[in-house]
Amino acid sequence: MTYVRNAWYVAAWAHELRDELPLGVRVLDEPIVIWRNGRGDLAAFEDYCLHRLARLSLGRCEGERLRCMYHGWLYDSTGHVVEIPGQARVPGGARLRTYPVTERHSWLWVWMGDHSCADEKLIPPVVGFDRAEPESVYAHGQLDYAAEARLVNDNLLDLSHVSFLHAASFRMSDVWAREPSKITPLERGLRSERWIRGEGTLGELGTSDLVDTYFCYEMYVPGVLMMTVHTYPVGTAQALKSQPPDLSRPPGQFTTQAITPVTSKTARYFYTMGRRRRGSETTYDMTVTDQAFAEDKMMIEAQQQNIDSAPARRFIPTAADQASVLFKRLVETMARAEGSVEASTDAQCTPVHP
Amino acid sequence: MTYVRNAWYVAAWAHELRDELPLGVRVLDEPIVIWRNGRGDLAAFEDYCLHRLARLSLGRCEGERLRCMYHGWLYDSTGHVVEIPGQARVPGGARLRTYPVTERHSWLWVWMGDHSCADEKLIPPVVGFDRAEPESVYAHGQLDYAAEARLVNDNLLDLSHVSFLHAASFRMSDVWAREPSKITPLERGLRSERWIRGEGTLGELGTSDLVDTYFCYEMYVPGVLMMTVHTYPVGTAQALKSQPPDLSRPPGQFTTQAITPVTSKTARYFYTMGRRRRGSETTYDMTVTDQAFAEDKMMIEAQQQNIDSAPARRFIPTAADQASVLFKRLVETMARAEGSVEASTDAQCTPVHP
Amino acid sequence: MTYVRNAWYVAAWAHELRDELPLGVRVLDEPIVIWRNGRGDLAAFEDYCLHRLARLSLGRCEGERLRCMYHGWLYDSTGHVVEIPGQARVPGGARLRTYPVTERHSWLWVWMGDHSCADEKLIPPVVGFDRAEPESVYAHGQLDYAAEARLVNDNLLDLSHVSFLHAASFRMSDVWAREPSKITPLERGLRSERWIRGEGTLGELGTSDLVDTYFCYEMYVPGVLMMTVHTYPVGTAQALKSQPPDLSRPPGQFTTQAITPVTSKTARYFYTMGRRRRGSETTYDMTVTDQAFAEDKMMIEAQQQNIDSAPARRFIPTAADQASVLFKRLVETMARAEGSVEASTDAQCTPVHP
User: Fold this and answer.
1) Which pLDDT band, with edges at 50, 70 and 90, does B279 fall under?
2) In whole angstroms, how far apart are CA C112 and each of A167, B223, B335, C1, C330?
3) N or C, which end of chain C has less CB nearby within 10 Å?
């Protein structure tokens, strides 16, 4: 798998990390333990005790230190061994590999590359369900995929599948597949936007109220998506001559999603859904979303099995794959640039997001 | 695994294929989608959409066409792409690999080899439960084996195991193992036949009525068996001087079975059992058959595990293995002939069944 | 995996072997069938019928012989074929590989190496729950590990983990980790012994009665442990100037444990616990033991996964690993000596236990 290492990956939900209990995750096939010390600071280590490779995520937080609970080795927040039970001397060089880690938008993010490039400004500009807006309702969830993260990214980058795969859930016509979106490259991603005219609202079952909808999403390396959905009376798109509406208005719906490669053939899919509150609603109704995401999972996992059965076969790109191809090239370019970092002394991080 | 490709393989029960729902199967480790178009014609394709390898068996029949339900590519009955949503031009050469497919004897059969040799006369002369005979009762079933198809074939080709493995189910004495059957080669298989004298009827629990039974089965490449069981009063075999009885009389029991290689280490075992109706019976009682087939499955799957643990070990042939050895040689000869087909310009199909 | 072959391995509990039913086990990744003939003698064969590799453990004991229940081959106690159904001649050289096998201390032991070295005096001097002592209570159990046997051995050889991993079950302080044991090499193993002063009794939940405890265990190749626990009033260790107490007195508790490599990545852990009866007890209360052994299993199986993820990483030895390192060297030395046995004509068994 080709993945960019100099990027923030979503490792877990912030609420998964509880007091004194370190959390074990796997990102890019590397086992990582994330923990919070007594001062509230986050740290992330490789999840291997140096002694005999026990899992530190089965360990215990002791104030500002993390103890392996197999034979008791104790580590400080920088990954240095500070105590070996039964032995006075601690080897000076013994230190765990660490990962930059931070919390934002309800998620814990780890940086998988060169520490000197780990700029928090590179965290994609998404929103989580941690912003308490009284006029909105939220829901969140996650799915574990038996498929490579890249295939889930591709799914999100080519929404022409909405017309077919989600015919019974999102119930949109074949307009998604017929008409192209407008694709704009970004420094570490791309933007895709479009009008859908005179259809029901996305995710509304049995609605007879038709609207013009402006869909806009941005997809960032390594695989983080922010989509907003603005609805208007039918005719708005035509009145605007298909130009974008005023996007500074709060969206009617939004979703933030992250696809994290766990191993080369598995991924974890994290998502937050949000919508303007209607009536006395207290939460986002996930009925349609759950059905649609199950459709994606069934199709993509079967696709992965087919790819494994016929690894030499190539995809055939189409007009609808434009965003997918663009994103793939961006990832390959960034990954290649990182390769040269390792090979030369003139090390450079990939360009930062503005 | 050595398997003949120029042969009809049982892929599924005919009743598994329902209107508008394509059916995904796997034969010789190839994923295949079988579907029926609006005119009732069958078609079979490799189960990979050319676009991004999605499963066509998750698709939808649309009249005479099959649509991939990931991004909507549409195929005609010959495997040609006829529509790519969002793109005016369809690449001319884009075509799926197809398989000859037909329905007979309650089964769907696919031809895995050279299309020009796919003669339906090569379908083995077996019968299914689709022939409605008021004087008979039927049952059918299938088992998935965690074992190579060849080992299940071997089981059927050496019925000496009935005396041991099925001692508690079929309850025959050790006569099966003591006395040889008469084996006759056929063009694409072999016939095995024998008298069993003065035993209870096969599969009858607790019977005290003894009979002379004439067992006759034919086993065809790739692994299709038709067995008939004729019973007579004790003494008939001796009166006939061990010669065959009049086999044109309808059998008291019959069974048709097919073993299809799914992968190199798994197989699907399809079977139909039939018997002359007794009293007001409406179906064939599978109690004894289910027990016996579970005994086979337990023994053969353990045998496969042993083979996997010691792949270099060889079998030791015995007198009882005569049919098994003959069938193995036939398969190897036919497979080798197919190899030369590919290598030479003087292509020849394997000889057709008379 | 490096294992000594000239050693007795615990294959099963003696009570697992029942009349006429052969027992299939796996040791050092070799499938073995153990059976008892009509005279009560044990025999052990490779679990492959010579005919077609069926499992003999699915067979049937017939007096002094074992019959394969696939096609009926019959074997005598020495592994020779004595009958092939349907065939008059039995090939003279056809013989199964056999293993020396014996019963002792509630267990069935098989010898995996050179038969001429299979001296029963090499069975480690442990005790089972088969000794009926009215003043004691017993319990026994087993766990299947998804980890290499070596990692379970290491766990037992470095009890400093008791202070951390078993903090919630055995509830001992960090004294196990702080103070070293006294390690003494034995010819085919090692002894580890120590005082623990003024703690609760091992495995006693919520006890407020403190004692001085003398722990002594011997660990033998291939992985058999015998531990005794003697308790005394607080102050005894000091009065004895830390010298061992009189160990000829029966212990308050004892445990016998065996770790058998099943495959290169799995092991079976057998254990007997015994204690002096208190009041009207009829069995050893396994509550604390079950919790502690589950803690070990969780930690060690995760450790195995980490090792599989990073096979090139090395352990860092510490003071607490002394017994583990010593035992590892002993196994390697013995295994190397066996290698030279095979390569030279001057064959020698590894030295026998005194």
Assistant:
1) confident
2) 63, 41, 43, 15, 18
3) C
Q: How far is CA B330 from CA A32, A203, B223, B346, in A?
A: 56, 60, 12, 21
Structure confidence at residue C205 (pLDDT):
61
Percent of chain B with pLDDT over 70: 94
Helix (H) or strand (E) holding C218: strand C211-220
The CA distance from C85 to the nearest CA of chain B, in Å, is 6
Nearest Cα of chain A lies from the Cα of C313 at a distance, in angstroms, of 8
Q: How many CB atoms lie within 10 A of CB B162?
A: 23
C48 touches chain B (CB under 8 A): yes
What local confidence, expressed as pLDDT, does residue A290 receive?
Answer: 95
Contact (Cβ atoms closer than 8 angstroms) between residue A70 and residue A85:
no
* Positions in chain C short of pLDDT 70: 1, 132, 205-207, 340-354
Query: C-contacting residues of A 87-126, CB under 8 Å?
Result: 87, 91, 94
List the single residue in C with minimal CA-CA distance to A47: C306
Where does the pLDDT of residue B94 fall: very low under 50, low under 70, confident under 90, or very high at 90 and above? confident
Note the pLDDT tens digit of each residue in A50-100: 999 999 999 999 999 999 999 999 999 999 999 999 998 998 888 999 999
- The dotted CATH code for B136-331 is 3.90.380.10
ipTM of the complex: 0.92
pLDDT tens, residue by residue, B137-148: 999 999 999 999
- Residue B199: the pLDDT is 87
Report d(CA A299, CA A145) in Å as an integer: 11
- Nearest-Cα distance to chain A for B86, in Å, is 4
Å between B31 CA and nearest CA of chain A: 8
- Tens of pLDDT, residues B305-350: 999 999 999 999 898 899 999 999 999 999 999 985 443 333 334 3
Query: Does A179 sit within 8 Å of B55, measured CB to CB?
Result: no
Q: What is the pLDDT of residue C92?
A: 80
Whether this model's pTM surpasses 0.90: yes
| pLDDT for B132 beyond 80 | no
Q: Does A183 touch chain B (CB under 8 A)?
A: no
Please name the residues between 55 and 94 in chain B that touch chain A, using a CB distance below 8 Å: 55, 58, 67-72, 84-87, 91, 94
3-state secondary structure of B292: helix
Indicate the length of chain C as a whole number. 354
* Homologous superfamily of the A8-122 domain (CATH): Rieske [2Fe-2S] iron-sulphur domain (2.102.10.10)
d(CA B317, CA C50) in angstroms, rounded, equals 10
User: In chain A, which stretches have pLDDT less than 70?
Assistant: 1, 132, 205-207, 340-354
Token pair in block for residue C282:
């009829």
Q: Do C58 and B161 touch (CB under 8 A)?
A: no
Asked if A65 and A82 count as a contact pair (C-beta separation under 8 A), the reply is: yes
Instruction: Indicate the domain borders of chain B.
Output: 8-122, 136-331
Instruction: List the subunits that have 3+ CB pairs under 8 angstroms with A.
Output: B, C
Residues of C in contact with B180 (CB under 8 A): 86
With contacts defined as CB-CB under 8 Å, which chain A residues touch B51? Answer: 315-316, 318
3-state secondary structure of A295: helix
Q: Transcribe B55-97 into DSSP letters.
A: -GGGSEEETTEEE-TTT--EE-TTSBEEEBTTBS---TT-B--
Q: Is the pLDDT of residue B280 over 80?
A: yes
The phi and psi torsions of A81 (rounded to 5 degrees) equal: -75, 130
The residues with which A8 forms a beta bridge, in sequence order, are A111
Contact A335, A3 (CB under 8 A): yes
Report the length, in residues, of chain A: 354
A135 strand-pairing partners: none
C182 touches chain B (CB under 8 A): no
